[in-house]
Design goal:
14-stranded antiparallel β-sheet, mainly beta, Immunoglobulin-like, transmembrane helix
């Protein structure tokens, strides 16, 4: 029998061996089974690559005993090594965990697991653990700019520390078992030949292995011209005698470097002999790019010490080195010094206060203080904590909530005050209570929900004996409080966490006693039944880069002088359709810092079942990138790669771009009344700033100014609309402060600046704080490094200068709520307070508004900035209102304090929480937290052109039954839609209409309504691919072609223009040729005789009130043509003339079959929407008719072919096209027509005496079958084209264009011409679209008195030929004509009065 048992054991053992089993029974199992849990590894790797052995073994096994009468008493591994073993029981399920510390070599190590029970003999399993030697060679997976990704053979765990033998750069172990190298520029600069391979050494066990990869620069072996035009900031920084002092804390000198080369990333940078800083692309284009280099010292140095730098540059395949020595003087950071903290404690049944104060030992100079309590901190500058005094003599005092309870007396709770980024200040211990033996929170169950593309919700059910205080997942904010609590209470509830597919959804829970629970991958929640925390299967997908070789784009070789809207396609049938890929866009200006990817915009590729491909939308902003769109693709936890690792056919390139990665900067600064004396009259002090941004143009900004004595603070938020003079590219802005007596002499300093361009590229100045890497590059004061920081200061002297140290009295302080539900939609709180000053004092500064601070127990601080309601000589009444963030402060009370009371005598005051309590004022409010009230907090992206599904994120959505949708866009009706509930915090709303304007949403549940939340759709307009450039004749320009649209049915015979006579040889061989229809002109020549040329002008600035276009008034000409005609060569006739033009839509009128007006609709108010920089939309509604008129104005920068109403139309450069759509119209009669009236005017400013004008209206001869109007003054013209067809009710119809100057009494003379054009539209039912366009021309011949239809001033008779004939024939009726003319003129002027006032004023204001 024993022999049989032994044979059975052997067969079982052999079975496991043959099946690669690594746990095998050595004895009969006796109903006991053992299973390794799925995070257990039978193979270990050395912790360090240079070791030849493994050192630790950990394991988790589930043991199940199916014998109900048996109980396992012990499980152990027999090893005489340091370690631990544990056994947890739930019913007949046991969890056996162990950790062993031992060294074993690559040979397999066998251990026995012994299971003892109370009724059977021991059961022994053999457990085999192997140590796998790290093998080489490595596999280079892919390369990018200064980045290499590689993998060790047979290695799938990224825990081993690789030992490198040379300083090539840095490396990172990734979750997928691969490694990422970021090559150091210092290593690259050490190469004699930039084309040589890059290499690194890895020390394996007892051997060293060298690996090489191709140099990045070897990929594009082009000659490289030497750098030219280096500019240094300050300009003498390369001189050892330089005395540059940092322009604010940590701002190093910089140099810009203009380079001409076709290499996308030429090698250049600066080294301080310890670290290499690669240059950053700043602005320009390939072939003419400006880079910026930092002169940053990476090691500590004393102010004024000689510093050694080397500037590296690339010449062909070699590096050139320019060493230099300079001095940098550090900016003086005024810290707290050796302060002494004192404290008081104030207790009550609900809230316990701990108040800390200190007296200053050094002057306050606007530094930022860091407040830390119980490992949680915030940063604040004045006035928080400044209770009394002035900057040179003040007391600082703050109150916090104490009464912390902890498990152990060894855990300390301290309160620290220090200067931000400085090792100063002081720390004081805060009393605490010790509560031993309390249980930490636990997670009892979890669920994953797939939400919008690439994102999941992790829903966690928890229990907390003491009450939950804080819960967070893989987030930068580890102190969100209870923001994620979506159901239940702090003792028994549900938490929702959102995470992307490339994030690890780990969870941390803290209760009110700071007991902590961690939920990590594969953690056991229960062993009976078995419940283990596992991520969604999509996170475990691990793809090869070859899966992505067939990525394609809707357009490539992009023109980034405009925004581009791209669709990305990934078509591979081998990819699972239930996954999502995330693409992080990394712009070219930050390619040297791949760690920034977490902050860059992302888009998700999701499976499109109709196409059978993964698709995504990508928006590339204008001027933001050059050469190539760099990005990183993520697919789950285990796969990511750089887009530059793909074949060129699967990468997105830029053909044309003018990079602008530099924010707006100050190019000129002028102080206003610096060092002025203030006696009796009020004066202003401040600055005039010229803000320059040559690429994108300035958009908006912020400036903060503070006083040197009383810290009085001024905040200026401003936009391009606040410009005093200039434009967005170079504009003057003024910032002034009014000073009047009584006052104290002091100095105002600029402490913070933020300037944004139209692409949201920012430049930042912060007087204090240690800088992020990007901030080094972006100081808007870069042009003033030479002159120094004094440019940011203005001072004044008060006569007399009064220092008023009297303290104000807080007469009243009220709070609107003593308890706040921070889970509801009514989280607003109002503070009213009154301050009284001494009648003999200087009074309060009314432009300095006190701030109420709201502090949670967990050190979250809010500011409520007050407004002054009323005041007299001594009393000042204030009010402030704030909405608290969801969950703020809960489950504790929130406390209040008041600071920032400033008088006119240089003194400030404040009141701590303790002060409010001692004076009998409200000093805290309790918090409650409802979880069933819907609150909308954010939304996932929705696009303007497709609408569709809208995902709303928030809380309280579990009983949602309706979502109210209200559209801002005129003509879109509201909706009530039933949502799909995904979780407590996510709902999906299907059926959103396409719109480019905002959408207001409100969620309704069984008992509540949510807040009104505004959704802003992302504008998307697919970019049409540009054709490759091909050689063209010299007389024509390359034109942009668009795909041929579907032909629209024709409903009526379409007009064909009669043949025109070819005049003037059509301008000659280089301008045009004669065809059967008339002259056909080569672009850019146009006109009846091809003698007019299109003028290239900048795009006009959109008028936000009316669909009006005024071409830039900088169209100048020397009118020597007319002078030569008359023989006059005087200086007066040779001066430049400025021409002005105006195009507008006047009205829509209904006319009967006789042409008489039935009703006329004047356009009073338009709604303006910018679509792109060159395209705008205007919408108006005709009252009592429900008819919408939509005018889309589009500017063409270059020759472009478009199609309208089945007709190909050539758009010349500098053409403005009006696309006008009119919706359904209620005609009085079916026989009536509509007539759209447009107005055009052209005039000359300060014209010579003998100038002439003319007007022509006729048919074009170019084959587009249109009418044209040409208004000419001297040798310049305004040219308009009116197509004789329209799209009406989905068909092409013939329409008529009519000159209405006689009936609408246009006014014209020799230097100013007006014209009205009527576009007549037949009866229709649904809609109509017409499409005129306009441009400005320069003519070969000026208008003279002999020209057709000319009008000249008195020196040329001032009348046209036809008018002269009429006067001669009618001379006998001269007196009657005068009377009639006077009556006519008076009536005409009366008719034109309102119109001229309206449009002439608009022309002057442009």
């Amino acid at each position: 029998m024993d022999d049989f048992k032994n044979l059975l054991i052997f067969l079982i053992f052999l079975f496991f061996r043959l099946n690669n089993g690594q746990i095998t029974p050595l004895t009969p199992t006796n109903s006991i089974t053992i299973t390794p849990l799925n995070d257990f590894r039978f193979s270990q790797f050395p912790i360090i690559s240079s070791l030849g052995e493994c050192s630790t073994i950990t394991g988790k096994f589930l043991v199940v005993d199916d014998n109900a009468n048996n109980e396992i008493t012990k499980i152990s591994i027999i090893q005489d090594k340091i370690g631990s073993q544990s056994l947890t029981k739930e019913g007949n399920h046991y969890l056996f965990s162990f950790w062993l510390s031992l060294n074993f070599t690559v040979s397999p190590l066998q251990m026995n697991i012994t299971i003892s029970s109370n009724s059977t003999s021991d059961v022994v399993y053999s457990y085999t653990q192997s140590c796998v030697e790290l093998e080489n060679p490595i596999t280079i997976l892919a390369e990018s700019v200064f980045i290499t990704k590689f993998k060790l053979k047979n290695y799938s765990n990224g825990s081993t520390l690789l030992v490198f033998n040379n300083g090539f750069g840095s490396f990172t172990a990734l979750d997928d078992g691969t490694y990422l190298i970021v090559w150091d520029g210092k290593y690259v600069s050490s190469k004699t030949n930039l084309y040589d391979d890059w290499s690194f050494d890895i020390l394996f066990y007892k051997k060293n292995k060298t690996f090489t990869v191709p140099s990045y620069f070897s990929f594009d072996k082009q000659l490289y011209a030497p750098t030219y035009n280096k500019t240094y900031y300050p300009n003498d920084i390369m001189d050892i005698g330089s005395n540059y002092t940092e322009f604010g804390q940590d701002y190093p000198p910089v140099l810009t470097n203009n380079v001409k080369t076709n290499i996308p990333h030429p090698f250049s940078g600066v080294s301080d002999l310890s670290y290499f800083y690669l240059q950053k692309p700043l602005k320009g284009k390939i072939g003419n790019m400006t880079y910026l280099n930092l002169l940053l010292c990476s090691t500590k140095y004393n102010s004024g010490d000689p510093l050694n730098f080397v500037y590296y540059d690339q010449y062909q395949n070699q590096t050139s080195k320019t060493p230099f020595v300079t001095k940098i003087y550090k900016f003086n950071v005024q810290n707290l010094g050796n302060i002494m903290l004192s404290n008081t404690t104030s207790k009550s049944p609900i809230i316990e206060l701990f108040t800390v104060s200190f007296k200053n030992v050094v002057d306050y100079k606007f530094t930022i203080y860091q407040y830390t309590y119980d490992y949680k901190k915030f940063f604040k500058t004045w006035p928080y904590g400044f209770i009394k005094g002035s900057n040179s003599d003040y007391t600082h005092k703050t109150s916090i909530q104490s009464n912390m309870k902890r498990l152990s007396s060894y855990i300390t709770t301290n309160y620290t005050i220090q200067t931000f980024s400085q090792s100063d200040g002081a720390t004081i211990a805060v009393p605490k209570s010790t509560i031993p033996g309390l249980k930490a929170p636990t997670v009892v169950s979890y669920r994953f929900y797939e939400t919008y593309t690439g994102f999941f919700i992790l829903s966690v059910d928890f229990l907390s004996e003491n009450g939950l205080e804080n819960a967070y997942s893989s987030s930068l904010d580890i102190n969100p409080g209870l923001l994620n609590l979506v159901s239940g209470s702090i003792y028994n509830g549900t938490l929702d966490f959102i995470f992307a597919i490339n994030e690890s959804p780990k969870v941390t829970l803290n209760d009110i006693y700071d007991n902590t629970f961690f939920l990590n991958e594969f953690d056991l929640l229960s062993i009976n039944p078995l419940s283990q925390f596992k991520y969604p299967h999509q996170l475990y997908y691990n793809f090869n880069i070859s899966n992505f070789y067939n990525i394609s784009f809707s357009a490539n070789n992009l023109n980034l002088e405009k925004d581009n809207y791209i669709t990305v396609y990934l078509c591979n049938k081998d990819l699972p359709t239930d996954t999502t890929f995330i693409f992080y866009n990394v712009d070219d200006s930050s390619y040297t810092a791949p760690q920034l990817i977490s902050k860059t915009p992302s888009t998700s590729l999701i499976y499109n079942s109709t196409l059978g491909c993964f698709t995504s939308r990508l928006i590339i902003q204008k001027n933001s990138i050059f050469f190539e769109v760099l990005g990183i693709f993520y697919s789950g936890q285990l796969s990511f790669f750089y887009s530059s690792m793909l074949p060129k056919s699967s990468r997105l390139f830029i053909k044309k771009s003018e990079l602008d990665a530099q924010g707006p900067i100050f190019s000129f600064i002028k102080k206003i009344n610096d060092k002025v004396d203030v006696s009796s009259n009020s004066v202003i002090v401040g600055w005039n700033f010229t803000i320059s941004d040559e690429g994108n143009g300035f958009s908006h900004g912020y400036i903060k100014i503070m006083g040197s004595v009383d810290s009085s603070t001024y905040h200026y938020n401003f936009t391009i609309d606040d410009i005093v003079e200039g434009d967005k590219f170079n504009g003057i802005y003024q910032f002034v402060i009014s000073v009047s007596t009584p006052c104290v002499s002091q100095e105002y300093s600029i402490t913070n600046v933020e300037l944004y361009d139209t692409n949201n590229v920012i430049s930042i100045f912060e007087l204090y704080t240690s800088k992020t890497f990007s901030a080094y590059y972006s100081n808007p004061f870069i042009n003033f490094y030479q002159s120094g920081i004094d440019i940011t200061k203005v001072s004044f002297t008060c006569t007399p200068s009064i220092l008023d140290t009297t303290d104000p009295i807080l007469k009243s302080f009220t709070v609107s709520k003593d308890s706040i539900d921070v889970g509801s939609n009514d989280r607003s709180i109002i503070f009213n307070f009154e301050i009284e000053t001494n009648s003999t004092g200087t009074g309060l500064k009314i432009d300095q508004l006190p701030i109420v601070y709201i502090l949670s127990k967990k050190m979250k601080l809010l500011e409520c900035k007050s407004t002054l309601l009323s005041n007299n000589v001594t009393n000042y009444i204030y009010k402030c209102q704030i909405e608290l963030p969801v969950s703020f402060g809960h489950p504790y009370p929130i406390s209040y304090s008041l600071y920032g009371i400033v008088n006119n005598g240089g003194n400030f005051n404040g009141f701590t929480t303790e002060d409010l309590k001692l004076n009998g004022f409200p000093y805290y409010s309790n918090t409650t937290f409802s979880t069933d009230i819907p609150v909308v907090m954010s939304n996932h992206v929705i696009y303007s052109d497709i609408g569709g599904d809208l995902f709303l994120r928030g809380r309280g959505f579990s009983n949602s039954k309706n979502v109210e949708i209200t559209y801002s866009q005129v003509g879109l009706t509201s909706q009530n839609l039933v949502p799909t509930i995904i979780s407590h915090s996510i709902i999906k709303v299907t059926g959103i209409k396409p719109t480019s304007e905002s959408i207001l949403v409100k969620v309704e549940t069984e008992n509540y309504f949510s807040n009104s939340y505004t959704v802003y759709p992302i504008f998307f307009n697919e970019t049409i691919p540009e054709p490759p450039e091909t050689p063209t004749p010299t007389q024509t320009q390359t034109q942009t072609q668009t795909p041929t649209p579907t032909q629209i049915p024709t409903a009526s015979p379409l007009p064909t223009n009669p043949p025109q006579e070819c005049k003037g040889s059509c301008g000659g061989i280089n301008k045009g040729y004669c065809s059967p229809t008339g002259c056909i002109c080569y672009s850019p020549w146009v006109g009846e005789t091809c003698s007019s040329q299109v003028i290239i002008v900048p795009p006009p600035k959109p008028d936000t009130g009316f669909p009006t276009t005024q071409f830039p008034d900088s169209i100048n000409s020397n009118s020597n043509s007319s002078a030569s005609d008359s023989g006059n060569t005087s200086e007066e006739n040779n001066r430049p003339i400025t021409f002005n033009s105006l195009i507008s839509i006047v009205s829509l009128r209904e006319i009967d079959y006789k042409g008489e007006v039935v009703v006329e609709h004047k356009f009073e108010k338009w709604y303006f929407t910018p679509i792109t920089e060159l395209k705008s939309q205007y919408i108006t509604t005709i009252n009592n008719n429900n008819t919408n008129v939509t005018a889309t104005l589009e500017w063409f920068n270059k020759s472009t072919t478009i199609q309208f109403a089945n007709e190909n139309l050539e758009m010349n450069p500098s053409t403005i096209k009006y696309s006008i759509e009119i919706s359904q119209y209620n005609f009085k009669q079916n026989l009536n027509n509509l007539q759209l009236i447009m107005f055009a005017s052209f005039d000359a400013s300060d014209p010579p005496k003998d100038i002439c004008s003319s007007k022509q209206f006729g048919n074009t001869s170019t084959g587009d079958n249109s009418n044209y109007i040409k208004i000419q003054i001297d040798n310049h013209s305004l040219y308009g084209r009116f197509i004789k067809r329209a799209i009406i009710d989905d068909k092409v119809y013939s329409i008529e264009n009519q000159l209405l100057d006689s009936s609408l009494n246009s006014i014209s003379n020799s230097s100013s011409v007006q014209s009205y054009i009527g576009i007549t539209i037949p009866f229709y039912k649904n809609y109509v679209v017409v499409d005129p366009d306009f441009s400005v021309l320069v003519d070969s011949n000026s208008v003279s008195s002999s020209s057709t239809n000319s009008m000249c001033n008195s020196s040329s008779s001032g009348l046209s030929k036809s008018q002269l004939i009429g006067i001669i024939i009618g001379s006998s009726c001269f007196a009657i004509a005068i009377v009639v003319g006077l009556i006519y003129l008076a009536r005409k002027r009366h008719v034109q009065k309102l119109f001229l006032e309206k449009y002439s004023s608009r022309m002057k204001s442009k």
